[in-house]
């Protein structure tokens, strides 16, 4: 049995704050080759997750908020925003299920945000055709401005 508690969330969030990418995951699956990936993802407000899609028809992705708030953005193939939603632990909307083939990203809207993620394994890095060609690369100067524009979608 593997019990998940608040102390784990605190450690994971602290590790995300100290990480260069401002995020940290805690895998529950035993190996990257395992058939079902289950993990906690701690994401801080300055992390940039480049919009992407999963081409594999077995790679639908589910995210359930454990703590904090996150904005989810879905795009069309040309990078136009198709829908946005705030998902929040204990909120009206607390989870999202993203079908394969759909460009998407997630934006942390408050410090200490953690979500549970599940999708089919094995782990494979995103391919060039899965990364949104219209979105800046992670770590690029343009990604900071792009993230700010995405965050603005969730501010009144």
TrEMBL record:
InterPro entries: Cupin_WbuC, RmlC-like_jellyroll, RmlC_Cupin_sf, WbuC_cupin
Residue ranges constituting the Cupin fold metalloprotein WbuC cupin domain according to the UniProt record: 4-85
Leader peptide range in chain numbering: none
Record-linked SUPFAM superfamilies: RmlC-like cupins (SSF51182)
CDD domains registered for this protein in UniProt: cupin_WbuC-like
Gene3D superfamilies: Jelly Rolls
Name this polypeptide is given: WbuC family cupin fold metalloprotein
Native species: Geomobilimonas luticola
